Amino acid sequence: MAPVTSAYPLLVVEDSDEDFEILQWALKKLSITVPVYRCCDGDEALDFLYRRAGYESPEKAPRPAIILLDLKLTATDGREVLETIKHDEMLKSIPVIIWTNSSDPKDIEVSFRQGASSYILKPLTLEKLLEAIALLNHYWFGVVALPGEVEE
User: Fold this and answer.
1) How far, in Å, CA of 84 to CA of 91, rounded?
2) Chain segment 123-132, per-residue pLDDT in tens
3) Longest Cα pair distance anywhere in the chain, in angstroms?
4) Which InterPro entries match (predicted)?
5) Model-level pTM?
6) Which of 37, 85, 95, 98 is the most buried (most CB within 10 A)?
7) Residue pair 85/106 in contact by the 8 Å Cβ criterion
């Protein structure tokens, strides 16, 4: 599967520096060139999405094409972020992919009930991580037609 180059931004909401660095490594290793923005907690993610608290400009906080969201976050957790996004008319069309260590069936069910587009367990090996990122990239940036930018 060839890497897909996309101008569509990816917002990663991840509080673990290690997990984020491994994700970035995988993207680079697979030659995936999508603009990646990171928020370290749920509050920061909402500030980014609503363009407040230092994220006022579209250059600093472009509308993401996809959100990769960890559930277990400090401050506002991923479940609350997902619920906020999916209840907002301006944000709810953005696909939200849960990217988490939680295999709890309740987390999976609640995430889909709240509008998650996918639920991916963080792979435990580098080989599985590369495979998951390659498939995610191919599907979301190569196959799926994503909503365009909303006029502001």
Assistant:
1) 9
2) 888 899 889 8
3) 42
4) CheY-like_superfamily, Sig_transdc_resp-reg_receiver, TCS_response_regulator
5) 0.87
6) 98
7) no
| 3-state SS string for 61-129 | CCCCCEEEECCCCCCCCHHHHHHHHHCCCCCCCCCEEEEECCCCHHHHHHHHHCCCCEEEECCCCHHHH
Give per-residue burial for 73-91: e unless 16+ CB within 10 Å, then b: beebbbbbbbebbbeeeeb
- The per-residue pLDDT for range 26-74, each reduced to its tens digit, is 888 888 888 899 999 999 999 999 999 888 888 889 889 999 999 988 8
Angle between helices 78-86 and 105-113 (to 10 degrees): 20
Say how many residues make up the chain: 152
Domains of the chain by start residue, with CATH: 10-143 (3.40.50.2300)
How many other CB atoms sit within 10 Å of the CB of residue 105?
A: 8
For residues 123 and 107, what is the distance between their CA atoms, to the nearest angstrom? Answer: 17
Q: 84-116, pLDDT tens digit by residue?
A: 999 999 999 999 999 999 999 999 999 999 999
